[in-house]
Structures are given as structure tokens and as C-alpha cells.
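Single Protein Entry

Contents — chain, fold
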Amino acid sequence: MSQEILINFSPQETRVAIVEGGILQELHLERSLERGLLGNIYLGKVTRVLPGMQSAFIDIGLEHAGFLHAADLPSGFLRSDGAAEDRPSPLPIEKQIFEGQSLMVQVLKDPIGSKGARLSMQISIAGRHLVYLPQDTHIGVSQKIPLEMREALRQKLLDLARENLPTGELSGGFILRTNAEDSHDEELREDIAYLRKTWSRIRERARTLPPPSSLHGDLDLLQRVLRDFVSNATSSIRIDSKTQLQRLQEFGSDFMPRALAKLQLYTGDRPIFDLFNIDEELQRALGRRVDLKSGGYLIIDQTEAMTTVDVNTGGFVGARNFDETIFKTNLEAAHAMARQLRLRNLGGIIIADFIDMSNEDHRAAVLNELKSQMARDRVKTSISDFSQLGLVEMTRKRTRESLERMLCEPCQACDGRGTVKTPRTVSYDIFRELLREARQFNPREFGVLVHPHVLELLREEESEHLAELSSFIGKPITLRAEPEFKPDQFDIVLS
């Protein structure tokens, strides 16, 4: 399927839309003041070692300390200057690192909410065609490349990696990326030279800078478009900034010359994202409900622990019988679900609650459709079979914040719960608090400040109960509206 990439640039924000068949499939954005940290390399200081969790917290100069697990320590231990030390990997973490120690670490996952960044000491540096592993001597090939081609590509990469090395021994390992399947020897040589030079620069900074310090920053979103998003299916890359187009052309000439012909300057009168109604799709992607063409719909809820997707038939009654109606709705839902996960950048544990199907062939067809659509995802995913409860459990690698968490914040009124107390519930909370205050204090009267909706209820439907309470405590109760209050907020004033 033909793919178009649209880039909307402004000094404060870069937005990239990937469109396939005229339909938005992915949306990536990066704000200049909120750039992600994924792939960045830091010189950090160990602030705390937790033997019980086999982990440690590392200060890398951010608001929250980063988290390092023992599984992310390399078998060849790396000091702060980038030099390797041979230490047995089975050793517990408290035997390998200690508080106050300087370590070179790389961000695996951006900070999410109150959680610090997930860190690793297994450093990797991505180039256009290769991933460099400075602590390893492994030569690997992407699993997405056909099996019959891997050994030949691995041997070619091994020979190129050994060139210009005095001892003939490898200086670091490499992994051939999927997009390097048809790359030429000269392109790989340039990538090897670039990555080794970058690593040399990182080690030099580690020797001279105090912890915590930033040693290396990953490419920005514009550059990653050329490195990661462009494929043979990409027909055009349109950008609405002449300055940034020139910048991309300079970067592309060094790392991806074949993409240069696809770069185009957009000069239309309408905003570039209006071409495919991207902004409207973005607004819909922030809602819970996703309507299907058949009349069914999805309900998507993102929580701290997992994301749930519920499928409903809605108004769809177009099939011949009930089982067929459910089957058609679930098939369409599987297709829409895969798109929504990509578009919203939802990761972690995902639970899909399809409408119950008694026909095993129908269940298999829906599951195959979901797997087929998720196979197009550039992010690693894993999908299980239907559980005994009829649920499909899947995982999608989470590296950056979801679209919702990048663009939205918890509601100040409900603190992210999605609900607030009813005016009647708040009224009865007030009654209980007035009784409590009356037992402790002896004021002349009680003043109650409430939201206008609560005030209306207290003066009308609850007026009799309020009068009874005033008689019981023997004190007058006055009410006053506070429009700035949250719906379930109140205050009692003694006078």
C-alpha cells in the first residue's frame, strides 16, 4: 500500500503524519521544550542500590532518578569512561555496582508520569543501516530479513567490520537493520565509520565531564523520519518548511541519499494537515469511543496498569443472523483496533474484549485478522490466543508516552478519575462534617461554601433535611455559592 509522510513544522512543535491509502495510520509529535530521551546516553551517579529488587536508581540530571535493573547490566561491565571490565554476569547487582559510582547508561524508556527513565548499561547506537554495540563482538542481522539471506549478509558485515583494524579483531559488534537489506558496501562502510567515531566522541566526553552529564543525544524527529519511517512503500515526504527541507536534504545526502527524491516542499494555501483531515483524526484519537463503519464501536480506556479495548455491536444489524453480525463486527474491530494502537501509541499490556463468539472458525479468523494488521506495526508486539474468558491479551513495546498523555493532563475537577461525586453525595458529606464540627466547637453560626449546583440542591430538595440539622445542633446554617470550587469541594466557616 502506498504511503505518504506529511511533516508540519513550527519552532515549538514538529508533527509527522504517516498516511496509507488516504487514511492516517500513525502520528508522531515532538515539542522543542519536551523532547524525548529515548536513546540518549548519560554519565550518571548511583544514588541507591536495592538488592531485594536487583535494581538501582541512577541520577542522570533529570527530575526523577532513572531505574536500572540487573538484567540491563552487560556481561562485560562498562566503567564510566566506556572501558570494559570482565565480571561474571550472575553476580547480584550489589556485588557489581555501589552508591556514588559513576556509570555510563542509556535511556530505554522515557520517563512516564512520576516514573523515572528506564536505563540500561548495554549501550547501542543506531545508524542508518546498522546498530553499533560497543561492548559486544556479536554480528547480527534483523529477524525481519528473509532467513536465506541472513548468513550472507552477516558474513559481508563481518568482513566490513574487520577492515582497517590492525589486529583483525572486532572493535564492537553490529546488527544489520531491516532497511539495510539492499545496502551497498560503501554505505555500510560509511555507517561503520560514523558509528565508531560517535562512540569515540562519547567516551572522550565521559572522561572529561562530571556526573551527571549528557554524553549523546538521539536524532530529533525530523531526522528519524528519514532514518526509521521511510521505506520502499513511501511515495512522498512533504514538508511545509523550506528551512527544514534543506536541513533534511543535507542529512539525507549523508545517510539516506535514496530518500532525497521523495522530499517535497509543500506550498499549498491550506495547512498541510488539512489534506487528509489530520487534525480531526487527532481529536477523535483523544476520545474513548471509536465508531466503526458498520455501526459498532470500540471503547478504549488507558490506565496506569494496562489499556482495555471493549467491542460493541452498537446499531449493526446488517448480517443474516446474530452470529454473523457478531463475526462481522469483530472483524472490523480487529482492523480498527490495530490502527488505533498505532495512532494513539498505546503500549504495555493491552486487553481486547471482543464480543463472545461460539464458532471456533470465527474466533480463529478474528485472531488472524488482528495478527495480520498488527504485523504492519513497526513497534514490537506479541498477541496471545483467546483466553477462557474470551479475552485477547497482547503486549506492545512502550518506549514513549502515548498520544493522550503527551497532549492531555488529568482533569483538575476529578483528579483523573473520570467521575465526581453527585451534588446529593456532597450534601450528605456536608451534613456529616457539620455534625462533627458542632461536637468540637461552639460558634455563633456555621457558614458553608459550596459549588452552585450543590447550593441549588441544598436550597430545594434538601432544604428540609438542612433545617432539621440546624435545629438538631442548635445553630443557624448559612449557604454561599463559590463558582471557582470543584463540584465536590466545600468549606465550612465558623463565626
About this structure: The first helix runs from residue 147 to 162. The longest strand covers residues 41-50.
